[in-house]
Specification:
Elements: H1 3-17, E1 30-33, E2 41-45, E3 48-52, H2 67-89, E4 96-105, E5 114-124, H3 129-142, H4 144-151, E6 155-162, E7 165-172
Parallel strand pairs: 5-6
Antiparallel strand pairs: 1-2, 2-3, 4-5, 6-7
Length: 176
């Protein structure tokens, strides 16, 4: 691992570890309707653009993933980032990480929300299972997206596999 990458990750983790309670940060995106249907939309984040659309049955053109797919991808990517950040900072050897996310939500016109999110985390590493489980437990509670979902009453279930073998199941949130 490049020492400068590790130093940057450690500095970021330390800055958040030492942040005063209530310290805030912000993120911003701009969403522009392209149309002419219920989608697509162009989303901008700094110098990055991506497209969001709906399937044709919801009036979209089906040219890109739907909004909930991006929401779920963002949550899973946030979690993955915490696994990798901790591994880099603590010199835990990972040779692969993959997260599959599945969410169930109310299919109603108004008041719908996610009810549960299940993550299947597959890790490739020569590390012992107990060290990988400890990494998973800490990454889970550090993840902003996971914490937001849990605080909103969503049940999170994370199944961790190490080199294809089940290591642990973590549960948080509603009735966990």
């Amino acid at each position: 691992m490049d020492a400068s990458v590790r130093a940057a990750v450690v500095a970021d983790l330390d800055s958040r570890r030492n942040a005063d309670p209530g310290a805030m940060a912000a993120d911003r995106v701009v969403v522009d309707w392209i149309g002419p249907r219920t989608g697509p939309f162009r989303v901008r984040k700094l110098d990055f653009d991506f497209v969001v659309d709906e399937p044709t049955e919801r009036g979209g053109a089906h040219t890109a993933p739907n909004p909930l797919a991006y929401f779920l991808a963002g949550a899973a990517s946030c979690l993955a980032n915490h696994y990798v950040s901790l591994a880099i900072a603590e010199e835990i050897s990972l040779t692969g990480l993959s997260i599959t996310a599945l969410a169930h939500f109310d299919r109603v016109l108004t008041g719908g929300a996610f009810r549960d999110v299940a993550y299947a985390v597959n890790i490739q590493s020569e590390e012992p299972a107990d060290r990988v489980q400890d990494l998973a437990e800490r990454a889970d509670v550090m993840c902003f997206a996971s914490n937001t979902l849990v605080n909103a009453g969503v049940r999170l279930t994370t199944r961790i596999q190490l080199n294809g073998n089940a290591v642990a199941v973590l549960e948080r949130g509603a009735t966990a």
